[in-house]
Amino acid sequence: MNFTRETGFLVFRIVIPILVLGIQYVFFKKTERWFRANAPRATGLRATVRSLFVIFNLAYVATHVYLYMFRVGQGWPIPTPWYVQYGWYPFFLWHGGCFFIGVILLISKIIKSPFSLSLWLAKRISPTKEKLITLQSSPAFQSFDASRRKFLQRGMYGLTAVSFGGTAYGMLLEKNECELTSVEFAFPHLPEQLDGFTIALASDVHSSPYMLKEDMDRYAQLVNSLNADMIVMPGDFVTSNHSEVFAFAEAFNILRAPYGVYGVLGNHDYYSGPDDVAKHVDDCGINLLRNDKVLIEKDGGKFYLLGVDDVGMQNSAAIKLDEAIGSAPLAVPRILLCHRPYYVKAASEKNVDLILSGHTHGGQVVLGRFGDVVIAPSRLASRYVWGKYRHENTHMYVSRGIGTVGLPVRINCPPEITKITLRKGNA
After folding, report:
1. What is the pLDDT at residue 162?
2. Which pLDDT score, from 0 to 100, does residue 91 have?
3. Does one domain contain both 102 and 197?
4. Mind listing the pLDDT tens digit for each residue in 90-126?
5. How far does the chain reach from its first CA to its final CA, in angstroms?
6. CB count, 10 Å around CB of 406?
7. At 395, which CATH number?
8. Which of 71, 234, 311, 327 has the greatest number of beta carbons closer than 10 A?
């Protein structure tokens, strides 16, 4: 079994659905308890809510069966834009809103757990137990408890509105509002002729039912509009099926740059069939570097562009990097195109000057940012989420990318295409 490809498939098509359906079950039970306690006679409303749970969860299961059948080659067509908009997006809105409510409730549960544990212990010690019973029966405490419950109830209404409203905004607006960003990196040994050399970086397109050809046409034109000396795309051209590469290739075959257009494969390209994806990406004019290198030369100034296939393990990264570097002279600057940003230490040991990566989507759903620290679920997998990083003499830029996975939602994290300028000088 190919660990990278098959494990990724299991995560995105089996583990995540089980997690989502588990969250739905918890919410359903909580909703039932709320109706019994607060609105026992609202049978019509209760039936409506039950129906929504059934409809959206059956739709979720049906969609994953659809995508699985499509992946293994049953010939099912890619859904039309109108069906995606009006058929799939509503249940993604439902599940996205429920997910964010679940995250906030989990955080509050963790914060509250020390106090709950202390109270539980106090109730099992006779002296404190009697005092707690006396306190809880007092009018002042009962008044406070009633106010607390009312506050929590109103807070839950507000949380529900914000969660579903935020999901709708991230799904329908922010995920389509691409930012063109600019960054510079300075290196003391960069040849004078390369001072001001520009690279357009566009990562994680994720061609899919949620990234259609008309969307990709617009992004391809934006990349060209940067008029960069070179264009690089560090992987995840598709999401879950190799046939998604056809729309990608049709859209991005217009990319042009004086010193070439280059790319590497990402983990989703591997899940979908790396050789099929690679063939069509190459055919559309993007030169894939599969554990290989190319010498870029401008007016006599030179640097090596290295590219490695996506890998799942640190030792594999070092082996593939060695294969890409080969006999490249140490005196010539090295820029590495690598889908995942996790291997900066290994690259630093190989005297790589700059790494250009993606994979994290900048977090995709970002709760906040404090300086260089991005607060997002992807932070659990890596400290390299978005922006500039450095390990010793190796610099790295991690792109927020263009597409989405899981939920077609971006919050506090719009898509990004980056223009990178190389400078001669101190960092």
Report:
1. 67
2. 73
3. no
4. 777 787 777 777 777 777 778 878 877 887 787 778 7
5. 44
6. 16
7. 3.60.21.10
8. 234
Check: CB of residue 175 under 8 Å from CB of residue 207.
Answer: no
Neighbours of 107 (CB within 10 A): 11
Instruction: Give backbone dihedrals phi and psi of 84, rounded to 5 degrees, phi first.
Output: -60, -45
Which parts of the chain register pLDDT below 50? Answer: 1-5, 72-76
From the number of C-beta atoms within 10 Å of its C-beta (0-12, 13-18, 19+), residue 268 rates as buried
Amino acid at residue number 396: M
Is 57 in contact with 21 (CB distance < 8 Å)? yes
Which of 172, 189, 215 marks a domain boundary? 172
Residue range of the domain that includes 336 = 179-424
Compute the CA torsion angle 351, 270, 173, 415 (nearest 10 deg). Answer: 10
pLDDT for residue 74? 44
Nearest CA to 242 out of 261, 259, 262, 265 is that of 265
Residues 370 and 407 in one domain: yes
What is the spatial distance between Cα 286 and Cα 419, in angstroms, rounded to a whole number? Answer: 18
Strand partners, 277: none
246 and 311: one domain?
yes
Q: Which residues pair with 422 in a beta bridge?
A: 185
Residue whose tokens read 């190389």: 422
